[in-house]
Structures are given as C-alpha cells and as structure tokens.
Design brief:
With 110 residues, the chain is mainly β. The protein is built from no helices and seven strands. It has a three-stranded antiparallel sheet, with no helix packed on it. A hairpin with a 4-residue loop joins strand 4 and strand 5.
Length: 110
Amino acid sequence: MTEEKKSNASLEIKLHENRTQYKAGDVVYGRVLMLNDSDYQGIELVVGLSGTESTKFRIINSDEDSIYTSSNKFHNASFGLVRYPENKTLKGQFHYDFYFKLPEWLPQST
C-alpha cells in the first residue's frame, strides 16, 4: 500500500506600512507571499478589496424595545497580480508586490 502525500500551498498578505486605518485617497502598498510545495493548476493570482458598512441601533419606548440592523456592501474591486503561463503555478517561494489607491468617495472608517 502506498501513502498519498498531500500537497500544501500557502498565501500570506502583508501591508508594507504598519497602519490600522486608511482614508479615502490613500495608497495601500503590500506584498503577497506564496509558498508551494509542488506545481498547482492555476490561471491567475488576484487580490481583492471589499467594504461593507453595518448599522445597528436600539429603539426604546414604553411598549417594547426594538433593534434595527442593516448592512450594505458599498465597494468591491479586484485586480490580477500575475497570470500563469500554461495555467500552472510552480513549486517554490514567490512574492508579488502590489499597490492600489483607495477611491476618493470612500466613507471614513472608525
């Protein structure tokens, strides 16, 4: 009986600046680190950015309390970092730098 070895791959995304908040118009710089222990089928490595706002408030009156909740996805964007020739990633360690500018119309985060 032969034992089948499971392949492992990992992706890590790091931002170059040690910031906890960004505002509209800021440029975000980062790097994706990919570690593959074997070749994999793949066409493209894509990085995405999405934003969702959430609202929750409680209404208190003499009859009963009620809670209102809502959420809205207001931004969703993605871009390709690399396309793989022959539709496969190779065994090894790779890094891909990226940057993107946040839209000017984004609401302030808290």
